[in-house]
Structure formats: C-alpha cells, structure tokens
Amino acid sequence: KLKMIFIFNYKENNPSSSPFLTLHAVRQWSNVPFFTVPLARAHGKSFAHRSELRQAKRIVVKLGSAVVTRGDECGLALGRLASIVEQVVLINRNGREMMIVTSGAVAFGKQRLRHEILLSQSVRQALHSGQNQLKDMSLPVLEARACAAAGQSGLMALYEAMFTQYSTCTAQILVTNLDFHDDQKRRNLNSTLHELLRMNIVPIINTNDAVVPPPEPNSDLQGVNVISIKDNDSLAARLAVEMRADLLIALSDVEGLYDSPPGSDDAKLLDTFYPGDQHSITYGTKSRVGIGGMEAKVKAALWALQGGTSVVIANGTHPKVTGHVITDIVEGKKVGTFFSEVKPAGPTVEQQTEMARSAGRTLASLEPEQRSDIICILADLLTERKDEILSANKNDMEHAVSRLSPAMLKRLSLSSSKLNSLSIGLRQIAVSSQDSVGRVLRRTRVANKLELEQITVPIGVLLVIFESRPDCLPQVSALAIASGNALLLKGGKEAANTNRILHELAQEALSIHGVKDAIQLVSTREEVEDLCRLEKMIDLIIPRGSSQLVRDIQRAAKSIPVLGHSEGICHVYVDHEASVDKAIKIIRDSKCDYPAACNAMETLLVHRDLLRTPLFDQIIDMLRTEHVKVHAGPKFASYLTFSPSEVKSLRTEYGDLECCIEVVDSMQEAVDHIHKYGSSHTDVIVTENEDTAEQFLQQLDSACVFWNASSRFADGYRFGLGAEVGISTARIHARGPVGLEGLLTTKWVLRGEGQTAADFSEQGSMTYLHENLPVAQVLPGHRTTS
C-alpha cells in the first residue's frame, strides 16, 4: 500500500496527547437520494483542462479565513456563507459528493467571548460606580484556543441551520495533525468520510484549534491587536488526496494567483498555473487573517495536484461573484486560477491577444499601400490555393453531415465560385483601404497657431466569433487589415480544418510586412463566455452566427461592446398598388435565394385588398412551387376556412423554407406591425405609389429599408463595401452592413505652440476663433498613426 507523507506546519504542545476526533451528524428525513455510483474516472491523474471540471464527482471546498469571517474579524460573514451553502447544496443535488474544509471557529468564538467580557465588565462597573455611565473599557488579548473552543459549536450550529433549510444533512469532523500520522486513525477518518458521503451527508471539517498551539504572530499585522486564524490549506489538500477527490476549490480574498503581488501595477491574474512556473511568481503579503498566505496555498495546491486532484484558487469574498463562484468553477468557466499539469503547446488566449495587439499597432502604422498589398496577396492565395482549401472543407463537411441541419451545412460549404467571389470582394476592400486609417474628417482653427484635427484610427483588438461560416474568416481578416485592427478569431469546431488553412493564408499574407501575429485564431478549448470576460484586452466583439449565439454573447459581454443583431426578422410588405411581376420576383428572391441568411424574408405582409386576387393566388402558387411552408398570422387565418398552421409567434426567424403570412389594412399598419414584431434589420415595400413608398422609407426605423428590391441586397458586398463583418441593428456607431468604416473610430489631434487654457480666460490675452478649415489641407509631411 502506497503511503503518502505530508508535513504539516503544526507544532503540538504535547505530542503524546491523543488526537481529538469528533463526529456530529443529525440525519434530516428527506427525499434526497443516496448516491452510491462509482466515480466517473479512475483517480490518479488530474484534469488537464478547465472544461473537464464538469466531470468532477467528488469535490472539496476550502473556505479560507477571509471568506468565512467579517471584515472586522469579529464574527462570521453570514450572507456570504448562505450563498456558499446554497451552491454546495445545488451541486450536491446534481449527483456530486461535497466536502467542506472551513475556518471561522476562532472568529466566531472571539465575537462571543468579547460580548461576554463586555457584559461582565459593564455589570461590575455599574455595581461599583452605582450608575449606568460606563468608563472606557479595554479588552484583554483573547487566546486563540479559547476562542476556538467557544466558537466551534456555534459555527457548526450555523452550518447545520443553513443546510437544514435545504433538507441537507451535515456532519462535523475535527482533526489535528496527529490524526494523519497514525495509520489506524487515518483509516478511521477515511472510513468515516466515505460512509458520510455514501449517505449523501456533507462533511464539514476543521482543525481542532482548541487543542493546537496558537499560530506564530504575523509580521504583517504591525502590532494591531487581532488574532490570526489557523490556515487550512494544507488540511484541505491532504483530505482531497486522501479521499481521492477530483477537485479542490480553495476560496480566498483574492481573484486567484498573480504573477506578482496583486496590488502592483503590472500584476496579471494567471488563468492557469503549471508546476514548473513557480520561479516566475513573486508573492506578496498575507491576507488580513490566516497565517498561510498565497505561497502556502500554492504549495498545498501543487501537492494536491501531484496527488491527482485538480485545484482552483478563486475569490470567495467579492459580492458580485460569491453567489455563483463555486458553480461557475464546476461548470468549467474561467474563474480564478486553475492548476494543471498539462501545459499547452501553443500560447494562451491572453498571450495571443497581446501578440495581436502588439502586431496590430505595427499594422496600423503601415502605409495604406502596404495594407492594400497584404489584402491583394490574400485574395490571390484564395484562388491559388483553392485545392487545399476545398480539401479541408470537404473533410469538415464529411464530419458535419450527420450533425448539422441542411441550412448550416450550406453555410459551412465552400466552392470554387465562392472562393472567386471572396477574392473579388477582398480586392474591393484593398482599394477602399487606401483612404481609411489616418483620414482627416474635420479641421478647425481653434485659435491663432492652434489647430485641431479629427482623424480616423483603428478600434484596437477585435474579437469575431462565428459559426459554420469559414468564408467569414478571409472577409473579416481583410477588413481588419484595411482598418489597421488586430483580430482575434474564434470559429466553430465544425469548420476547424477550413478555418486553419484560411488562417494560415492570412498570416502568410501578413508576413510580407512583418505583421503575421496581427490576426490570431483561437484553437484552445476556450469557452465563448470566457472570451467575453477579457475586457482589458478586447475592444469590440462581433458575433457571426445564430440569434442564440448573439444573445449569449450580448449577455456574457458585460464590459465589452458587441456589434451585431440578435435576429433577422425581415418583412416584405406588398401594397395594394404593387406590380405583379415585381412582387413575385422580390418575394421569391427574398425567401428562397438563401433561406438561412439573416437578410431572408421571414414575414410576408399583404394588403387586405389583395386577398382573393390573381396576384395573391400567384404568390401562394409560387411559394408552394418553391416548397415554402406557410404559417398563417392571426388576421390571415380569420379569412380562411381551411388555413395553414397558425403561427406560434409573429416574432420568429425561421432560417429555412418557411415564412409567416399576415394581412394588414394599410401601409401604416404594416409599419406598426414591423415596429412591434421586427428586429430592425431589413424591411421591404413593394408598391408603384411613390408617395406610399417614401412614407414607408421615412417612418420605418430599421437598419435597411428598401423599395421594390429584394431584402437580400442587405449585404456589404452588394452595397459595394467589399465585405462586411456583420449587420448591426444598434442605434449608435455603425448600423446596417458594417464594412471598413464601421471598424474605425476617431481621435483628436491638437497642434499648438505653447498655449494654455489660462491664456483664454477673462484675464488672458488670447481669444477663440473656432474656424472650420478644408479637410483637404493636410500639413506638409504630416503622418497620422493610431
């Protein structure tokens, strides 16, 4: 039998005394089942990636002193503990075995003893003085073991009360260092814990601080009269390995492990820590309570990792994350620092972002002709290397045919004609890039010899997330190059092979001017939600995919702007003065040309006077011929004896050969319907009445509004933008098809000769002119960069 020896930093006053072990369990009758299912994996090897944490079946949660106690160290953080208990119960009910290693007995006892001392002193003083007015009372220094003895029962009673609210049973186990040095007691402890877990009881484990010696004073306390609470990191690590736990979650008062003390300017939170990285870490001071500090946590975490238990160190005190920090970690989200023995071969996504930003600044400083050259070379490579591209795409198609819908497969598929069209579009972008970065939009003479310019500059680092659309990669890459932006790409796994070859071609083109790293393809197991949290690295997110993807990104990216639209519910309104031929052509093209596109028609609005006319009959016949499934709107259904299936919602994006038909009484009712049920994407009117058309175009608040033209024209390429990164329905910045212009922002450049704001005050000698100057007047030799 393999014996694991772990050296604890405990100093027993009387090593010969018998260790103290107590078990306290009150079974609550409930319908919670016992989980006796064996672990999902053989223990002995920790998880290599965060995403694998979802497989963890046995979890130890270590609550540090700073998590359990209040800021004044006198009492417990009840609200924080309640949210932690709720998460533990939730995870436990999902079939996982949970154990808690907790601090807090000393702090709780300290609160109780202080209260008793104050009460005792006040009574004695009142009797002595004969009056209620009390003099200043000083509190004695409280001994840690006495505090632990006074607080342990109350701490456990509090846990028991909280867990009882969820009909979950708990058990208390107090241990000392000697319990791990005696083989028989180790086996007893192990057996007890296994039996508790078998009965679905949550063990709550703590060191028996009533019999251990007090901790050595912390150097960082600087004379403040507080009692440090014994650190439980080593205990949690030892128990996790002894019990073959899959995951140890160590909650503290810091976000995780930083490469330098968290308070320093250049400190960076490490998403993942590898055993060989200790030399790159500089440790800071310890927390306000506890004696271990981050260095002790790291040592304990590495020991547990070596023993086969994965570890995450995270913040359990932040009010914005405490309520879901444990569940987020178990779900594999990027929270805190994850300890892994498997170091990826390539750079992390954070490193990729930094590489892209650095190269992006160089890209923005290139001459317009140089950026144009890069795009033209990429356009050439798309046709010259089409055999490689199509071969990779065929591989993706073969793997996806059984998993994707026909509409998604069509988006995934590439062909020679598609590559030729892409190449033509890229050359249009190359031409437009000649007048993009550094273009002067406005010039103003603020005062004599004080001139102001507003110029275009790149946004910074773009993150584009796209599904099943490999043709998106060269389009977006060309637009990023033309606008001088760094680019981070996250494609769907269904197009992994195609995306890889297209990204290689983009970097090959970029390398001619030494900016290969400006475009990065994220190939790690990075969750989209985790990418949306890189607010310090990414300046704009552009989702390209399903409405659900866009909504998820908009919800997750709380601190990063998102450009795009969540739905493409496009309408075609056929007025009673519409041309028959135009109506049929426009409806067919809008719905049937590419049903999966976001600019395809989803709802057909028909003027009431057209019902039971040849025009309406031809529309229905055409849709039937094109195999379009029709859903009847409420008003349309009321006109029919036998109607098609009634629509479930008038706000539906079908993305297939399906559409809704609804009847309206007027153009104004059509506008009102679109405002209520549309998505502000693209809407069309078919009519021969110019006044009616102009009213429709003026009143409708959509990104694109068309008269007698298919909704499929809502596209950057068809608008002459060369390509687009997406269609935006937002009210600010870019709207509609977003091409090169939408990827630029501005900055103000002021050139003076020593002027100050005081010069223009009432006592100053200068006055403002604010004269607009022709933007064509550029200073000789002027060169603008971001």
TrEMBL record:
Q: Which Pfam families would you find in this protein's record? A: AA_kinase (PF00696), Aldedh (PF00171)
UniProt keywords (A-Z) are:
Amino-acid biosynthesis, ATP-binding, Kinase, Mitochondrion, Multifunctional enzyme, NADP, Nucleotide-binding, Oxidoreductase, Proline biosynthesis, Transferase
One annotated Gene Ontology cellular component of this protein: mitochondrial matrix
Residue ranges of domain Aspartate/glutamate/uridylate kinase in the record:
57-315
| Gene3D superfamilies linked | Acetylglutamate kinase-like (3.40.1160.10), Aldehyde Dehydrogenase, Chain A, domain 1 (3.40.605.10), Aldehyde Dehydrogenase, Chain A, domain 2 (3.40.309.10)
Keyword Lipid metabolism in annotation: no
**Span of domain Aldehyde dehydrogenase:** 348-631
Q: Is Protease one of the keywords? A: no
- Reactions accelerated catalytically: L-glutamate + ATP = L-glutamyl 5-phosphate + ADP; L-glutamate 5-semialdehyde + phosphate + NADP(+) = L-glutamyl 5-phosphate + NADPH + H(+)
Q: What is its EC number?
A: 2.7.2.11, 1.2.1.41
**Record's function text:** Bifunctional enzyme that converts glutamate to glutamate 5-semialdehyde, an intermediate in the biosynthesis of proline, ornithine and arginine.
* Name of the protein this chain belongs to: Delta-1-pyrroline-5-carboxylate synthase
UniProt source species = Cyprinus carpio
Name the lineage.
Eukaryota, Metazoa, Chordata, Craniata, Vertebrata
